[in-house]
Specification:
This protein is of the alpha/beta class and about 270 residues long. It has helices at about 5-15, 40-50, 60-65, 70-85, 100-115, 155, 170-180, 195-205, 225-230, 245, 255-270; strands at about 20, 55-60, 90-95, 120, 140-145, 185-190, 210-215, 235-240. The longest helix is centred in the last third of the chain and has 18 residues, at about 255-270. The two termini are about 25 Å apart.
Length: about 270
């Protein structure tokens, strides 16, 4: 089963469009764990255990682990997720973007070291920065397309004078990802929930690609507008919420509180379908 098939299967199994992002900040950990980077695995695995039947995917952000010298804990967490939630795909949020042998090493890191099912990538350097990841036929590559940050306007909204119709950069990328770049059906796109109009445009240009949509929850993206703009029965969406779930409580009940918020978010997303 490849990544896209895994997403469809997890959506059906857990009746969910929700992805829980795993962005551990020890300064926000509960109780006696607060400030203890040695508890990253314990914290994240508790969140996974509490929400594994509510999600379409998990998305650990590698920088939160690497900054704390906690890559070994990330490896343990990835193994834990494969063990307790084997039907839930894991997206390694790394946003890599390099070429040649360096890209090959990043692909090995994501898919062999961490055993991720998909990885986020920056496509700024073109198709040869994507191709090494596509040599893993059952894995996914999710390309930054229309991101939720305001600085995304600097590049993504610019028109391309040399392309027929002068599309915006993000529109051209969406078309390439749906067509000539998607040689084995492995690609998806990142589109921010803070721009529902652009989600709708990306879905028009890439009708069947999985869309990873961050920005619901703490970043203020509207869940219902996100689903209306992006979800199609043959075009899945993966709606990410991180902080709103992870830090729903600063007490010993943090895992139960995370489950409660995840369930509320999942139900709100489903209601908009």
């Amino acid at each position: 089963m490849n990544f896209v098939q895994q997403i469809h299967a997890a959506a059906a199994l857990n009746n969910s469009l929700l992805c829980v992002g795993l962005d551990p900040e020890p300064s926000r950990f509960p109780g006696a764990w607060k400030g203890d980077a040695g508890r990253i695995y314990d914290f994240c695995s508790a969140i996974v255990d509490a929400t594994k039947d509510l999600v379409i995917a998990f998305k650990p952000q590698i920088a939160y682990f690497a900054a704390q010298r906690a890559e070994d804990q990330l490896e343990r967490l990835m193994a834990h997720m494969k063990r307790v939630a084997p039907s839930v795909p894991v997206i390694l949020d790394a946003k890599r973007g390099d070429i040649g042998s360096t890209a090959e090493q990043y692909a090995r890191e994501a898919f062999e070291r961490y055993q991720a099912d998909a990885v986020t990538l920056s496509p700024f350097m073109g198709f040869d920065s994507i191709e090494p990841y596509l040599r893993y036929p059952d894995k996914g590559a999710i390309l930054l397309c229309r991101t939720s940050n305001t600085g995304g306007n600097d590049w993504q909204m610019q028109h391309l004078a040399d392309v027929l119709g002068q599309p915006r950069l993000y529109e051209h990328l969406a078309r390439l990802a749906q067509t000539e770049w998607n040689r084995n059906g492995q690609l998806g796109l990142v589109v921010g929930a803070t721009f529902p109009g652009e989600i709708e445009r990306v879905r028009e240009l890439a009708p069947t690609l999985p869309l990873l949509i961050p920005g619901v929850g703490a970043q203020g993206g509207d869940a219902a507008a996100t689903v209306r703009a992006g979800w199609r029965s043959d075009g899945p969406i993966i709606v990410n919420s991180s902080r709103a779930v992870l830090y729903a409580s600063s007490g010993e009940d943090f895992a139960a509180a995370a489950r409660h918020v995840a369930m509320q978010t999942r139900d709100a997303l489903n209601a908009a379908r």
